[in-house]
Amino acid sequence: MKNWVGLLIVTFAYSISCFTQQDLKAINEGEKYASKAEEYSIKAVKACENDNRKKCLELFEKSIAFYTQAIDADPQEDNYYLNRGLTYDYIENQTAALEDFTKGIELNPDKTLCYIARSQTRRLMDDYQGSYADAMKHSEIYGDDNESLQCKRHALLNLKEFEVAITVITQIIEKNPDNDYYYINRSYAYYGLKDFEHAFIDAFKSVELENRNPYVYKNLALMYYAIGEKEEASNAAKGGLNWGFPVDSDPDFQELLVNLGFSN
Q1: I need a labelling partner for 32 at 20 to 30 A (CA). Which of 2, 65, 184, 230 fits?
Q2: In whole angstroms, what is the distance from residue 164 CA to residue 138 CA?
Q3: What is the DSSP string of 200-218?
């Protein structure tokens, strides 16, 4: 389950002039249940922050139940699907989350926040093409906000679309110039294009900002090895290992370590 720092609860307002009495009754019923769902979500967040996993899951399940009642009362409100989907997502039921976000998009394709939520879920499911497409649609509606840029960054790097990734990461760096990790990402994209000059510039900038991030040393090791500097590559690889790089998650680094003569 994700580490919780908060839950996105979408609030909304209606213009009541265009609704019948039956519509308004459904809306009021839906809002009543959604309000209870939000209460349980907030309690769940606190339980998660206190590392009470069992209580956290129980409260999220109650939240989901109330969102389901809200949907039953007012099935045309896309925000109920959005918030139930987010809750499913946070308890790692990505399949149910995806279904809810897709339903929200069907109900309100021109304004919903379900595109960016589905983009994030698709990324968790390793569907990077779908994640990128949803992030692009979100950008068409709301512009290049931080959420859409982050989804694009993840998707493009995993798809090895390095030229476009560099453009996106540069936008992120302009907004976050002191975050070392984005320089690491852009360094890797330049490395993928064999633009070693810019790859090293970004890697060194990352080290300047934070010299204990193992990912930058992994990048440097790959880059030095690619240009034939095996001693420098070995030193950088040691730095990555010393700072705890997760070797098992990266086949490229595993292969590099073998080539450099590191023992298992």
Answers
A1: 2
A2: 17
A3: HHHHHHHHHH-TT-HHHHH
Two structure tokens written together for 82: 């959005």
As a whole number of angstroms, the distance between CA 161 and CA 167 comes to 11
Query: Letter for the amino acid at 44?
Result: A
Q: Which residue has the tokens 């859409």?
A: 148
Q: Is 113 helix (H, G, I), strand (E, B) or coil?
A: coil
Per DSSP, helices labelled H in the chain are: 21-49, 53-73, 78-90, 94-107, 114-124, 128-142, 146-159, 162-175, 180-192, 196-209, 214-226, 230-242, 251-259
In the block, residue with structure tokens 């070392």: 180
| Whole-number Cα distances in Å, 27 to 32, 65, 69, 74, 104 | 9, 17, 12, 6, 16
Give residue-wise pLDDT tens across range 64-74: 999 999 999 99
Residue 14, sorted as left (phi over 0), alpha (psi -120 to 50) or beta, turns out to be beta
- How much is the pLDDT for 23? 47
- CA dist 145 → 109, 131, 139 (Å): 18, 15, 7
Query: What integer pLDDT is reported at residue 20 of this predicted model?
Result: 55
Please compute the mean of the pLDDT values over residues 121-148 and round it to a whole number. Answer: 97
DSSP state of 5: S
Spatial separation of the C-alpha atoms in residues 78 and 90, rounded to whole Å: 19
